[in-house]
Amino acid sequence: MNKKLFICEKPSQAKDIARVLSVTKRREGYIDNTDTIVTWCLGHLLETAKPERYCDNIKPWRIEKLPIIPEQWHMEPVHRVKKQLTIVKDREQNNFPFLV
């Protein structure tokens, strides 16, 4: 049986949604029961990569080197919430369908 996964913006929103859905088992980084998981993002979990990742010659930085328009954008974890990103990814990788 697949579980439903709700990803909220912040813990307080997740707590409210979990209460309404009668999801009560508190875990590290999420709340669940037999058929539902509610987790949260703690703000932004990913950010665009720094310019140096796209252009080796960007340092020293100068206005003349702009604009930087990469062919493919790269995302990197926000360091302060990396643990929560791992929790959200682990829940998603268990084949839970997303609900918005």
Task: Offer a quick outline of the entry.
Helix content is 21%, strand content 24%.
What are the SSEs and their pairings?
Layout: E1 4-8, H1 11-20, E2 25-27, E3 30-32, E4 36-40, E5 46-48, E6 75-77, H2 82-92, E7 98-99
Parallel strand pairs: 1-4, 1-7
Antiparallel strand pairs: 2-3, 3-4, 5-6
Please describe what this structure looks like.
With 100 residues, this protein is an alpha/beta fold. The chain has a single domain, classed as 3-Layer(aba) Sandwich (Rossmann fold), CATH 3.40.50.140. It has two helices and seven strands. Strands 2-3-4-1-7 form a five-stranded mixed β-sheet, with helices on both faces. A hairpin with a 3-residue loop joins strand 3 and strand 4. It is elongated and about 55 Å long. The C terminus is likely disordered.
Key words describing this protein structure:
100 residues, alpha/beta, Rossmann fold, five-stranded mixed β-sheet, two-stranded antiparallel sheet, 2 helices, 21% helix, 24% strand, disordered C terminus
